[in-house]
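// run 5 | inverse folding | seed 20
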C-alpha cells in the first residue's frame, strides 16, 4: 500500500518534470486558398540518446494531414508519396523541406495567407505530442 501511495504522489511529479528530447525549429507552411493543399516544413532535432519516430501529425488548418516524402519517379521525374513514419536518430536532425520530407496539409480549412500562423500537433513514439506553430510564407 505504501508503494502505491508513493507512486501516486511522485509519478506525476516525475512525468511533469520530464522535458522532451525533440526540438522543432523553423516551422513554416506554404500559402493556400481554402480547400487547396499546402505543405509544412521544419527541422526536427533529437537531442536525446535514443531514436524517436514521428508517426503522425494533425492540424485544424487542414482536413487531412499526412507525412510525405519526395522521391525520384523516373528519368527527370519526381513523385510524392505518404510515408508511415520518419525516424530521427539520437543527436541528429531531419530537415522537412521542399523536395524532401514534408507534412502535407490537404484541403485547407481556411485561407492560409503569408503572415498567418497555424498550429500543428506532431506525434512521436517516445516524446509524445509536440505542438508547434508555423508561419505561413512563400518560399
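// decoded
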Amino acid at each position: 500500500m505504501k508503494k502505491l501511495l508513493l507512486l501516486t504522489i511522485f509519478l506525476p511529479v516525475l512525468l511533469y518534470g520530464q522535458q522532451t528530447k525533440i526540438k522543432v525549429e523553423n516551422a513554416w507552411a506554404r500559402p493556400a486558398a481554402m480547400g487547396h493543399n499546402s505543405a509544412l516544413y521544419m527541422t526536427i532535432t533529437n537531442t536525446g540518446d535514443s531514436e524517436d519516430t514521428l508517426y503522425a501529425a494533425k492540424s485544424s488548418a487542414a482536413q487531412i494531414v499526412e507525412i510525405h516524402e519526395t522521391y525520384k519517379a523516373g528519368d527527370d521525374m519526381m513523385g510524392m508519396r505518404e510515408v508511415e513514419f520518419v525516424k530521427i536518430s539520437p543527436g541528429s536532425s531531419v530537415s522537412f523541406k521542399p523536395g524532401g520530407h514534408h507534412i502535407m496539409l490537404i484541403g485547407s480549412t481556411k485561407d492560409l495567407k503569408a503572415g498567418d500562423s497555424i498550429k500543428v500537433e506532431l506525434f512521436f513514439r517516445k516524446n509524445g505530442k509536440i505542438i508547434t506553430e508555423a508561419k505561413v510564407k512563400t518560399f
